[in-house]
Structures are given as structure tokens and as C-alpha cells.
TrEMBL record:
Keywords: Molybdenum
Annotated protein name in UniProt: Molybdenum-binding protein
Pfam families linked to this entry: TOBE (PF03459)
PROSITE patterns xref list: MOP
InterPro entries: Mo/tungstate-bd_C_term_dom (IPR008995), Mop_domain (IPR004606), Transp-assoc_OB_typ1 (IPR005116)
UniProt superkingdom: Bacteria
NCBIfam families on file: Mop (TIGR00638)
SUPFAM superfamilies: MOP-like (SSF50331)
Length: 69
């Protein structure tokens, strides 16, 4: 199956809660993941980011697309 999203994180379904129209599906992440962010040089300098620094990643996304192959 082909799909447009390129970032993939391996996960297991933790729970499924169904309503009248929509379902809430929760996932446990099971595989290692690498993520990337594009920042302005000014932001990198302001945060003083260096290789090896520990940071928290805040993910802002409109869709999470579960794919079962």
C-alpha cells in the first residue's frame, strides 16, 4: 500500500474506544524513531542547540495515519 506520509513510527494498538461516529485509537510506540525539524538559524542559535543536547520534541500534527500492512 502506498501512502503520502513519510514519517513512520512503529506502534501497537493500545485501545480502541468507539462512539456513534468516531473512534479513538491509542497507540504504544514500539520501535525506535528518528524525527527531524527544520528551524531558522536564529532559532538554533537562540536555543543554543548542539549535538548531544537532550530536548523535548513537541509534535504538532493534524493527522496520525495508522497503516496495517
Amino acid at each position: 500500500m502506498k501512502y503520502g506520509a513519510r514519517n513512520k513510527i512503529t506502534a501497537k494498538v493500545k485501545s480502541v474506544k468507539s462512539g456513534q461516529v468516531m473512534s479513538l485509537v491509542k497507540f504504544d510506540v514500539t520501535g525506535p524513531a528518528e524525527m527531524a525539524s527544520v528551524l531558522t538559524n536564529e532559532s538554533v542559535e537562540h536555543l543554543d542547540l548542539k549535538t548531544g543536547d537532550e530536548v523535548q520534541l513537541v509534535i504538532k500534527a493534524v493527522h496520525v495515519l495508522p497503516v496495517k500492512e
